[in-house]
């Protein structure tokens, strides 16, 4: 439980040190970070590293607890603990370097994918930005959360190279080759010398990121995007059985999205109330919803890249492989598919950074919790995960609204549980379903790749054996002994 008196004192101390312009207590701003179960007491907005160090010192001296976020301007990063002070780095938003020849960038934590893309396009640089679906997400937060996008550079943790963080005591640390003065390879060689520590600062409360390097994809000479629809619920298994070898052999190199019809309906702005009946939709209704949009029960989005003479060869292989799936339709021209969906989906795989047609949460509310299990790119396992998740959602009154992104050998799933932000009962119901999903998935062998701040304790329990939680606790105590940064 956070001590409210200490939080108030910490916020006052920060304001005294940085000035009123760096602190915001307005209800409208606090609501941007709030959930029905947690609301911050204030937001601190440092403009640079010097102000960040002052804010940390003032908060620590007053016994405050901070929750760092990279860019909360668009409401994408929520409060995990009630009465926490949000430390929002959105004003630290400089694109520090874009290197076209070596294909990398270095950014401050407040930079969004939209801003990075605009910077690159303004200089006519032929590099693609991979983003995880929302262009207003922070580039640094994507590394911190280990998000995944849709191009061949979809693995944002792998593509991150070079990091600077500020520890709880205000000291700056550069990782990898950046630890060496005059280094020429900070954004080129990930590991530096000695133990590689960048991963300690992803999905953790050990420090605050201040600079993040990321590799960018050179625009390829040729590419071909496509989608595959499968009409029946049980078609997921054969679809992924075909996809698995294509991913393993890097024939389809992008982050391949596989979504169900309700996910795509939500992307197009449709709502649960647009469909007949009460409670979770039956498989036949989901199938009908997909058919009405020119889609299947399952919808896969892939792309091929390479030389102009090579892409057609790959296409013949891929077209034939997916065409062998029962009930599958391979689409390369967008015919019969809503142009908004086709344009956005194809753009995500070819460096076009744009907002989706509609936010998923509006399917049945205005915000959503996500549950994020990982499975092999394997039909049997993916179907087993889907069925237990579908049934658990139904038990709690939720539709199964899901997307998976196949990266290398695994598929990262996002299962959406919409709720109404002003309704605590709605939010509590979503949280209960999320907790049940996490527990059921862990029991079946499927762990989480990411979780909402308020659900971390539930996920932590599923990783309790093997000493990992003990190791994390020891690192936390060493780097942040007073628990300045919130753990929720």
Automatic annotation (TrEMBL):
Record PANTHER family: ARYL-ALCOHOL OXIDASE VANILLYL-ALCOHOL OXIDASE (AFU_ORTHOLOGUE AFUA_3G09500)-RELATED (PTHR11748:SF114), D-LACTATE DEHYDROGENASE (PTHR11748)
The FAD-binding PCMH-type domain, residue ranges: 36-219
Keyword entries, A-Z: FAD, Flavoprotein
Name the UniProt record assigns to this protein: 4-cresol dehydrogenase (Hydroxylating)
Molecular-function GO term, any one: D-lactate dehydrogenase (NAD+) activity
GO terms under biological process: lactate catabolic process
Superkingdom classification of source: Bacteria
């Amino acid at each position: 439980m956070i001590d409210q008196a200490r939080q108030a004192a910490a916020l006052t101390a920060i304001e005294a040190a940085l000035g009123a312009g760096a602190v915001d207590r307005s209800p409208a701003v606090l609501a941007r970070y709030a959930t029905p179960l947690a609301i911050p007491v204030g937001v601190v907005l440092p403009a640079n590293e010097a102000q960040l160090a002052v804010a940390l010192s003032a908060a620590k001296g007053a016994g405050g607890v901070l929750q760092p976020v990279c860019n909360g301007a668009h409401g994408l990063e929520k409060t995990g603990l009630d009465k926490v002070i949000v430390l929002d780095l959105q004003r630290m938003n400089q694109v520090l370097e874009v290197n076209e020849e070596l294909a990398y960038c270095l950014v401050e934590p407040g930079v969004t994918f939209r801003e990075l893309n605009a910077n690159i396009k303004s200089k006519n640089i032929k590099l693609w930005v991979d983003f995880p679906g929302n262009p207003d997400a922070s580039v640094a937060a994507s590394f911190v959360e280990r998000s995944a996008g849709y191009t061949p550079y979809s693995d944002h943790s792998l593509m991150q190279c070079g990091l600077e963080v500020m520890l709880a005591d205000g000291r700056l640390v550069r990782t990898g080759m950046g630890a060496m003065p005059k280094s020429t390879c900070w954004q080129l060689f990930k590991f530096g010398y000695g133990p590689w520590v960048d991963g300690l600062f992803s999905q953790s409360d050990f420090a605050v990121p201040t600079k993040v390097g990321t590799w960018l994809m050179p625009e390829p000479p040729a590419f071909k995007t496509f989608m595959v629809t499968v009409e029946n619920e049980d078609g997921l298994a054969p679809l992924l059985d075909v996809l698995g070898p294509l991913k393993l052999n890097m024939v389809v190199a992008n982050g391949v999205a596989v979504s169900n019809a309700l996910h795509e309906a939500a992307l197009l702005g449709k709502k649960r109330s647009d469909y007949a009946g009460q409670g979770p939709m039956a498989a036949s209704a989901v199938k009908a919803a997909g058919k009405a949009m020119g889609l299947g029960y399952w919808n896969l989005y892939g792309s091929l890249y390479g030389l102009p003479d090579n892409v057609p060869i790959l296409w013949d292989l891929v077209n034939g492989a997916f065409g062998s799936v029962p009930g599958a339709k391979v689409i390369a021209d967008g015919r019969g598919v809503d142009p908004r969906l086709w344009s956005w989906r194809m753009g995500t795989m070819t460096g076009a950074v744009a907002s989706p047609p509609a936010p998923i949460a509006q399917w049945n509310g205005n915000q959503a919790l996500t549950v994020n299990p990982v499975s092999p790119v394997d039909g049997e396992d993916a179907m087993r995960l889907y069925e237990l998740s579908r049934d658990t959602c139904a038990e709690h009154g939720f539709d199964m609204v899901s997307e998976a992104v196949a990266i290398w050998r695994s598929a990262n799933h996002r299962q959406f549980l919409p709720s109404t932000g002003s309704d605590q009962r709605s939010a509590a119901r979503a949280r209960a379903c999320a907790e049940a999903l996490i527990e059921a998935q862990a029991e079946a062998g499927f762990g989480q790749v990411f979780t909402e701040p308020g659900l971390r304790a539930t996920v932590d329990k599923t990783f309790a054996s093997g000493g990992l939680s003990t190791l994390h606790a020891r690192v936390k105590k060493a780097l942040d002994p007073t628990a300045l940064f919130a753990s929720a």
